[in-house]
Each structure stands twice: as C-alpha cells, then as structure tokens.
Amino acid sequence: MTDWSGIATDFIVLDRPMIFLDVDPPFRNGFKLRPEDRAGYVVGSLGELIEAMDSSVAAPELWRDQFRETRARTIEKAYGNTLDGRSSLRYLEQILALADTNVPGPGGLDHHG
Length: 113
Prior knowledge:
Blueprint (H helix, E strand, L loop, with lengths): L6 H5 L7 E3 L19 E3 L2 H13 L1 H20 L7 H16 L11
Parallel strand pairs: 1-2
C-alpha cells in the first residue's frame, strides 16, 4: 500500500498486489509516472482499502489479471530494458569510470589489481 512514493516503482517488479491511496501527487513536473500508471487498486476510503486488502490476500491472481497490461506498461516506462539482472554491474562500471576521471593523482584509483 502506498501513495505516490517511489517505493511503488521498486515494488512493481515483484508482481505482487499493490494498493494506492487516492491522493493528489505531491509534485508538478519531473515525475514519469501518471495516475493511469498505477498498477493496482486505487482506494479513496477505508471501506475500499479493506476490500482491496481482502481481495489482494484472498485472490492475488485477480489483481494480476486485472492489472497485467498496466503493470507491463508501467514497468516499461519506468525501467525500459534495464531489468536484466545486470543493473549492479552497470552502476559499478559507472562508479569506476567516475573514479578514474575524478580522482587526483596519476591514473586515478587502482581498481584493477
């Protein structure tokens, strides 16, 4: 369960039911995802929240069926083709490249030996 927290973008890849509180987004520009990208139940009352929670626990497959397309579209929008299990390697390569170019001294950091 979330509002507009970035945790929703992290959690979406786990393929588990998501519930969004129907509140106004706290930002105006710079955020990729829009209300139509919320791949889960959107609730505006305590009754709707309880109903969504019950449904999510009792029948998660219903959530998967209902939000399959939205989830796929949102993952593509948020991650593109980077969900390949190599993101840590890409980060490491960028960090090492920055270290080589930004560390004073001959040759930057010695990370090869």
